[in-house]
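for the writeup, i need someone to sanity check this before i put it in the appendix. the sequnce is what the collaborator sent (i think, or maybe the updated version? ugh). structure was predicted straight from it, no edits. if anything looks off just tell me and ill rerun, i have time this weekend
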Amino acid sequence: MKQRNYAAVFLVLITFFVISFMTNIIGPLTPDIIKSFNLNLFLVALLPFAFFIAYGLFSLPTGILMEKYNTKLIMVIAFVLALCGSLLLAFFPNYLSAILSLFLIGAGMAMLQVIINPLLRVAGGEEHYAFNSVLAQLIFGLASFVSPLVYSYLVQNIGNNNSMASKIFSITPPDLPWISLYFLFAIVCVLMILVTISFNIPKMELTNDEKAGNAKAYLQLIKQPMVLAFFFGIFCYVGTEQVIANWMSQYLNVYYGYDPQTTGARAVAYFWGLMTAGGVLGLLMVKIMDSRKVLISFTFLAMLSLTAALLFSGEVALVALPLTGFFASVMYPVIFSLALNSVTQNHGVFAGILLTGITGGAILPLITGWIGDHWGLKAGYCFLYITMSYIISIGFWAKPLITNKTIQLFKKEG
């Protein structure tokens, strides 16, 4: 048995935390960005667009680079990109620098995301990969829960001369306290660069499922309607997730008057926290039910939760919107597994195609913002009934070659 590199496993786990911490903060920041730069909903939606387009553009090239270059070098470059993006917005806080900043941060996070999953397999061992992957996702969810709370703490304490936050981030513009978060991101990136350089990262030998593949393999798969259908499934899921999270604080502020820096930020934090909890329940559910039935039932409940948030009081919306995260938690892993279990070869290439579906996080918030500018955010949120209906449809038309193995709770008599 190969000797396991637990230091590298630790590096991967804290990288998961950092990716989530820096990625899922756009939603709580949205009301502040609108106010600071005097933007409409469409223009502010260009910020997550820039971030997720970078994800789509850099994911596949990083897979190719992994086969040619040192893993540590690529990770350091990724953190340097994120550092440059953070410093750009921190020192030059304006709308155009915000777009470029989020593009650079998105590029760095995309590179890291592609690298750390196979690195976790190699460093922690194939026999522990399933456990370590679940642990990594829990840490990812924890960071998504923590980052809005950190933002809330910073914006409430910047300007208070007696607070530690005000002393550490004293160069933050007093009228833009949320910019302190990007100074914090810069510090985190510098620390991660130093940590990555100091760690001994094992050489990665990619499995066939992890290799990027060649252009011919991509073209062969893209021509298959089933491949495109699953791609749009991931596209719809990521877009739905980002629309709910990105517009939640703004929605609660506009329709019910909740403070985006406190109540709104906490609601987004609970959205990600509940998504993590739902992911744990989802792991259990797919052990006792066909994953297609799990997808249908959880997506339907997510639609009901969204409906409650749109039709009833602010108190209901404050619970129902975060609760959609709980029900949405199973969508990504179930769609991804159904897709990969529907082909017999080129799983790595197929996974690469599916991952480009992350661009849904760029396109759908943009559409929602445009609708919101013309007819209000409630109408924008209604667009999600289309995307979630498509996700439900996957549970009916998916025909995996291998279905998930379930535990039989009750034995049949006779």
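The CA atoms of residues 14 and 139 lie 8 Å apart. The chain has two domains: 1-208, 213-403.
thx in advance!!
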